[in-house]
Amino acid sequence: MQLVSRRLLPLLLLAPALLAWAVPCSAQGLFGKNKVTYDRRDWYSIKTEHCEVFYYSDEEGLAREVAAIAESTAAEYDTLFRMRPR
Question: What confidence tens digit (pLDDT) does each residue in 2-37 have?
């Protein structure tokens, strides 16, 4: 029987390469250090009979459209389900 079996020889030669590959990369040390920052923005709201829509000033046109759609849908559901707003 030989000192090192022929079957174990490839494994012994491959083991150091696998260990070197498993060493953590330098970028892994930065994980969690990039904090997300947001610009402080003011909220506005549009109140209708059935709902309230919140938006940023840049999105006022879209918010008005959403409020109109929500109001017409709420009115349609009120008649469909025979409900009255509180």
Answer: 655 777 777 777 777 766 766 655 556 666 677 778
Structural domain boundaries, residue 69: 43-81
- Closest-CA residue to 58 (of 41, 46, 70, 71): 41
Taking only the tens place, the pLDDT of each residue in 33-57 is: 777 788 888 999 999 988 999 999 8
76 belongs to a structural domain = yes
Contact of 44 with 57, CB cutoff 8 Å: yes
Give how many domains the chain has, as a whole number: 1
Structural domain includes residue 7: no
Polymer length of the chain:
86
Domain membership flag for residue 26:
no
| pTM, 2 dp | 0.51
Integer angstrom CA distances of residue 15 from 3, 11, 70: 18, 6, 65
